[in-house]
């Protein structure tokens, strides 16, 4: 799915439906990108994220006449990491399994005869 930028207002990200509404293109017409808009290309390399990182879109960057997506990487603060780890532990639907009892070692249990 392509994203677009309005070159007059720098509104971004826009999608085909947004451009059609703003440029008054009919929904059934073949889509031709109107003047004043540009396609924004994905970056060649996306940012590498660690376990406590997130990213948000920034305004695209114009390089050699082509608009490219840009991202800001945000690392959690130590307080956010603590809250995140607490939330993760509290919301884990599969806690560590409890060990199964060894019935052979319990007094009065039947011996295991299945090989």
* Helix and strand element order: EHEEEH
Helix-strand category: alpha+beta
Q: What is the end-to-end distance?
A: 58 Å
Count of discrete alpha- or pi-helical segments spanning 4 or more residues: 2
* Total of domains: 1
Percent of residues in beta strands: 25-35%
The total of beta strands comes to 4
Round the mean pLDDT to the nearest integer and report it. Answer: 85
Indicate the percent of residues in helices: 10-25%
Cα-atom radius of gyration: 28 Å
* Overall outline: elongated
User: Tell me about the biggest sheet?
Assistant: 4 strands, mixed
Low-confidence sequence ranges: none
Strand order of the largest sheet: 1-2-4-3
Layout of SSEs?
Layout: E1 3-6, H1 16-23, E2 37-41, E3 53-63, E4 66-75, H2 78-90
Parallel strand pairs: 2-4
Antiparallel strand pairs: 1-2, 3-4
What does it look like?
This protein is of the alpha+beta class. The protein has one domain. Helix content is 18%, strand content 26%. Strands 1-2-4-3 form a 4-stranded mixed sheet, with no helix packed on it. β3 and β4 form a beta hairpin. The radius of gyration is 28 Å and the shape is elongated. The model has no long low-confidence stretch (mean pLDDT 85).
